[in-house]
Every structure is written in C-alpha cells, then in structure tokens.
Amino acid sequence: MRPGLKILTCLFGIGILTGACVKEPQPGASDQPDTQSIIRRGNGGEPGSLDPALAEDIHAFSILTDLYEGLVTVAADGSTLPGVAGSWEIGDNGRIYTFVLRDNARWSNGEPVLAADFVNAFRRVANPATASVYGFLLENIGNFAAVQSGDLPAEQLAVIAIEERLLEIRLTNPTPHFLAALTMPVAFPVYTTASKPKVSTAPETFVGNGAYILDSVVPGGAISIKRSPTFRDAGSVAVEQIIYLPLADPDAELNMYRSGELDITHTIPPTQLQMLRADMPEHVRIAPSLALYYLAFDLTEPPLDDRLLRQSLNMAIDREQLVSIIGRGEQAAFGIVPPGVANHDAARFTWRELPAAERQQQAQELYLRAGYGDASPLALQLTYDAGDIHERIALAISSMWREVLGVEVTIFKMEWQYFLATRENRAAWQVMRFAWFGDYDDASTFMNIFRSNDPQNLAAYANPDYDKLVADASAEPNDRQRAALMQNAEALLLDDYPIAPLYFFVSKHMVSPGIAGFENNILDRHPSRFLSVNRAD
After folding, report:
1. Distance between CA 243 and CA 264 in Å, rounded?
2. Which fold has domain 9-243+511-533?
3. Residue ranges, the chain, pLDDT below 50
C-alpha cells in the first residue's frame, strides 16, 4: 500500500497560504490517441443512480468519475490531482480554501464551468430535500449541518463564488482529507441554467464536464460513454468509447473476458484465482484495497440489542478459516480500519491472539450468559445479496454459528436493488452483510459511518462517547493527537460490537495486456481518461 495520499500543496511557510504544485498526468499511450478505440469494462452491477448527489455505490462512482470532474480529480495511481481548479490556496490554518478555476474548463454543451456551478451543486447536496446519502463528505463545510437540518437556508452554506472562476470554501475546522473528499461524485459541479441546477441522467439531455459524455443507457444492460470534445484536456484522452457492463456474476464476467467481450473485469471469481494466476499471470491484477467486508447487526430491537450476544457471535467466527475458504488473498479483519491507512494506529479486538479453541469456549460462555443454549437456541436471519462470494460467506458464517453456538440460522438472498432498499426496512432483517469502500486515505472514512446520525450507519449504532471522540479527532490539528483519538474511538466501537468485521479486501481484476494506464492503487479507482489501447493485430 502506498503510505498516504500525495500531498498536493507546497508549503511556503507556517501560517501563509498554500498553492498547488503538481504536474498534469501524461496520456497512457502515445502522443497520438487512437480515437477509434473501445474499452469494455465489467462494472459489477447496475448503478443505483447517475446523479452525482444521489449516487451511493461503486457501480455508479466509476461511471460518474468519467462523466464529471470536480475541483480536484483522481490520478491513475489513486493520488489526487488538480481538476477544474488549476490551483488553490489554503489559509486560516487549513480552514479556508480558495480555488482558481481553469479558463478552459467546459461543459459538454460548450459553456464554461464557473464557480457558481459548484456553489449550486454543494447547496443541492446540503438541501434536505435532496436526501444525499454521501453528503457527509462535505459536512465540515461551514453551516452544512444547519442547512441540511433545515435550520438555515442553502444560501448560508459557506461556499462562495467570489468571481466567475474564483471559489471560496470555508470549513468549520481543519480537515486533512478535504481535498481527497472533493474527488468524490458528491462534490462534482452541476450544470446551471436560468440560475437553477439541472441534472439529467438521460443521454439525450445529459450535460457533464468530464472526459466522457453519456452516449446510451440500456436498463439493466450496457452503459456506453464516448469521448467529450469539450473536455479541458481532451487531447490526452486516448479511448473514444467506454462500455460498462453491469455483470454481477463473476463467472459470467470471466467467461466474457475469456471470449474477448470484456477488456477489464470488475473482479475475479475466487474459485478461479489460483488457476488464473498460474495460466494467465500477465492478465491478473491484485492489490491491497481500502475496503472492509462486515456483517451489520440490527441494534434497534431484540435479540441483537444485547451486547453479550453480539460479542458471542463475533468470537464464534473463525476469520482465518473464512479467508482461507474464500481464497482470494483477503486479510482477516479484527478491527474497522484497514492496515496501511495514513496516520492511524489501528485498534483490534482484545481477544484476536487467543487460540481458536479458547475463543470458541468464551463465545459459548457469553452465549449462555445472554440466555441461549441447547434448550433455547437463538434463531437468526442472515440477509445477503446475490453473488457467488456473498453466498459462500453466508453459508460459512451460518455454519460456524451453528457448530460453535447452536444458532439456528436462516440465510436469505436478495437481488442487489432490492437488497439496497431493504436496508432501510429494519423489520425485514436482523443481520445483513455489507462492505465499505473508503473514499480517501484516512481513518475517518471508516470511523465516520458509525456515528449516531450518519446515513451509512447500517447497524444504527449510537454511542455519544464514540461520537465525541470522532468529532474531537476531526477538529484536532495535531496528527499524533488526532491518531490517538481515532484509535480510542475504534477501540470503543469494537468493544460495543455493533458489527462483525470479517475481512479487508484486495482488489482483483483481469486486465487485457493490450490496455495501458491501469495502475494498482489502494482506492481501486481507475478513471478511463488515463487508459489506452494497444492491441496486437
């Protein structure tokens, strides 16, 4: 893993403004792009929404990163680069960001991208009527919380168009990861007409400012995007067309790759990984990833409102055996934040070093203390979404709970779109599998989602002490003290057992050797604008 996000600014002295000093990326292929080229990418599933303010899944994020560009953007190696903003300054000890927008930044209809487009986009995200799930990434902007709660009008949000191409954002406290957060779709600009933001997800009316524009959308099928002639750096975009295929079945995806119908896969079937590494090593890309796979417990009602029971269920899971069964190189998770995250000293379950037999014995004792046993076994439903790996994990976990504790487990599979909708209906599930992919290289991208009022808090975990530790860490400018606060928060969260962390991901892709510009990175983000094609005749 790389040690942290590349710092985009050069310090000229303590207490004075900071300016960007990064070179622009070079095209992935030659100086003469192959404008007739096409790349077909597996997308892992159908995007829930192509509205930047409403998107909440990785199936949408990849496409939106191609269709739009924020103030800053993601490089091929996952680092952060200047985007619409060619430069910026940071003042007031990290609380004021002033962005200078490029003169050549254009919407796909040819109109200029202006500071007002970002103002309108940020206000739209903060507006409670929008119900933006990812709005939390912008919560440190001044008055964001008050606007989102309806206590202040959107015009009071501390995002100001000083001039047509000069944008100021004021934060409530220093936020080390703020620039990285601005690479996410929720921070993308919105085309404005008649002083109103206008977002369209239909190809015929779509207006974006990214390297690509929306070409065609087949419901449940392919999404095609094509190179935008108005993109500010269109000359370096080597691939004319990208076709995203929402293939949820890894085996079907691999079959299409083998037959030449795909150039990049979303993942690799676990049962095929070792064989592929031996037979097609030049195609296999595996790298550490900033992501956690976990089970969320519904803490709002019995029986999982019982901490002893949740601890028992956690200790009965043999995570080393689980990752061995999966066989994809994942790392067993005994904490929340993946290893290698910048400036974080990870907390882990205190019992992680115990032998498996001793863990199981303690799990059984806790299970009895919680009021369950052979005569009165716990009945539990485990909900997961369709997909080979999710089913294998559900079967393995249910087997462990049954064998170690005697839990009567019912597993319930749902299609992805129904699965997403079910999250909000707590009466419909007790334990639900989920995964969280970090948005930036900082512990807060994992810790924030367990705060009491966070929309991503699937378990409905609520602990004021935890909320305070995370808030104090967010406001702490000293890196060492901030890391200590985050570690304490993670330890407290683990001791409350709102979830069962299972493993930390690695990214796994099949990439055609004829594709250049696909670089492994901890965020597993691969913008199409940096890709190129060099297929043999």
Report:
1. 10
2. Dipeptide-binding Protein; domain 1 (3.90.76)
3. 1-33, 35, 537
Q: How is residue 140 written in tokens?
A: 């440190």
Q: Report domain 289-507's class.
A: alpha beta
Contacts of residue 537, Cβ cutoff 8 Å, sequence gap at least 6:
none
CA distance 46 to 41: 13
Domain with CATH 3.10.105.10 in the chain: 289-507
Residue 406's Cβ-count burial label (10 Å; 0-12, 13-18, 19+) is middle
Angle subtended at Cα 71 by Cα 451 and Cα 229, rounded to the nearest 5 degrees: 130
Integer Cα distance of 403 and 388 in angstroms:
23
Share of the chain above pLDDT 90, in %: 76
Residue ranges, CATH 3.90.76.10, the chain: 9-243+511-533
**Hey, what are 424's tokens?**
């909000």
Contact 527, 244 (CB under 8 A): no
The tokens describing 187, both together, are: 């921070």
> Could you tell me the two tokens for 492?
């407290």
Q: Is 83 helix (H, G, I), strand (E, B) or coil?
A: coil
Question: What are the tokens at 488?
Answer: 């304490």
Look up residue 442 and give its two tokens: 């900082």
Residue 62: closest CA among 534, 523, 532, 533: 523
Tell me what the pLDDT averaged over the chain comes to.
90
pTM of the predicted model, to two decimals? 0.75
**What pLDDT, on a 0 to 100 scale, did the predictor assign at position 12?**
24
Pairing of strands 379-385, 408-414: parallel
Residue 532 CB: number of other CB atoms within 10 A? Answer: 23
